[in-house]
Amino acid sequence: MIKQILTYLFILFTVAAHADDVRFTMSAPNAVSIGDQFRLTYSINKKGSNLQLPDLSNFDLLMGPSTSTSTSMQSINGRTTINTSYSYTYILRAKSEGTFEIRPASIKVGGKVYLSNPLKIQVVKGTPKQQQQQQQQPTGNNQAAPAAIGKDDMFVRIALSKRNVYKGEQIIAVVKLYIQPNRPLSGFDEVNLPSYEGFYTQDIEIPQQINLQREVYNNKIYQVGVLKKTILFPQQSGKITIQPFSITCLVRQRVRHRSFFDDFFDNYRTLKVKVTSRPVSINVKNLPPAPANFYGAVGNFNIKAAISEEDITTNDAVTLKITINGTGNLRLIRNPELKLPPDFEVYDPKSTDNVRSTENGMSGSKTIEYLFQPRFEGDYTIPSVKFAYFNPSSRQYVTLATKEFNLHVKKGSDELSATVVSSLRKQDVQLIGQDIRFIKQDNTSLHKKGYTFFGTIGFYLIYWGSSLVFLLLFLIYRKKAKENANIALMRNKKANRIAKKQLRIAYGFMKNNQNEEFYDSILKAFWGYLSDKLGIAIAELNRESVVNTLQSRKIAQELIDEFVKIIEQCEFARFAPSGGSEARHELYKQAESVMSRMEKQIKLK
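Predicted structure:
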């Protein structure tokens, strides 16, 4: 048994040793203050020797190296891998202002020398650290008043990639929260994000949990968290101002005991700190006079075309597919005009977007499918599609063109026009002897023979009544068939019921203290309701489009604000804690109330 275990472990270590390459990395904070002590850590996934440090004369080397080893085991598809990491840590102290580069270190593994990555560390001026206020002070009533949180200790701002742009040119807007390192953030109480009026917006996906990183701003070091990333496309020229927005943060602050009998563990209190951004202005220039084939595209694009087939008959339909690839306002590009011969029957084009929203902007493709059918035989030319876009980098228009296609159309069969005639067969018009009785030629007296129901009032009542019932059932069937075919209408009718079902799921999560699932379920209920009720695709849902659509339907502004506020509370509750069970229960009741009132108002409109 022991032999089998040792053999198994040997195989695992052998697989792990050959599966991974050598990874040798260096890590340290990217910004520190003069006099700050910080860690410089080298990590490697194989046991090495002869670690050679680079020149560290710009810093004071206080201690090191301290070594540590960590091991982790991972099993994927029945294959187990053991990963081991070796770390070498040094304690350094910054001694002068400036930006300093630490060149790569070297280490030897298996007879080969490996180099780490280089690093740049920015050292800024900083005030000397304050002495601990609790040293050598009597207990009594001398509780230290907490230091006030100033406007430079915590603030929020919008970082823009550009401030001078053309109409339709994309801008990356990042909402950042700046906090002094000695101000621990524990959550949010109230969040009001910018509305970005005058812009078409597309959100960039960011991690649900805020990750604070060190950053130098105005020559000071802050812990910075990204709250939201958005791509903005200005829809009007001139000066557009993004109005201030506010966030209420929950900050933990250390307090001093007033006496020996105070709660020993009650060393902190939570403060509510409201921070408000400053207005930000963007100068939007109008586009130069556009060429004839400009369809609103601003960015950098290319175009290609493909046709389904070139040899067809008059009964066949042809699809011409135009694909626009590139970076820019893909969702806002109108369908290019396709000029076809007058003898073609043309259908409405179908457009499909396949876009990605990243920190580099919106990119991807837009595909337009043109469906048409030639009515007559002959040879036709499908002309090239001309497409012009404005390139903000070169500040000029670029015109692209697809290739032409030659279409050879043969005469199709006449089966469609002769369908009704050909459906009659000779057997259908044969006379059967029993159809008409023999005409008697002698004098025959006619007289009434018994009672007949035909022609009576009862006969006509039953005849017209059954006809009316049949017609009514047929109309009901047609109405249901149309409703089932109209997906948007069916989604609209079922929106409230589906949303209530999702809210009940959220209630179950709330009872089980599954906080993240609770907020996600409320978000699904609200976004799903808006998508189904307003007929907006989930991918195109954002606060601005929702607010504009609800306002166009004359929904009360107060109700719109409540609706948006609940969405914002749920989104930020996933980043950090935002209250206890009572707060979640109150949020659930508000969600039910707002959903019910919204449904009533939409029905009335």
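Summary: The longest helix spans residues 457-485.
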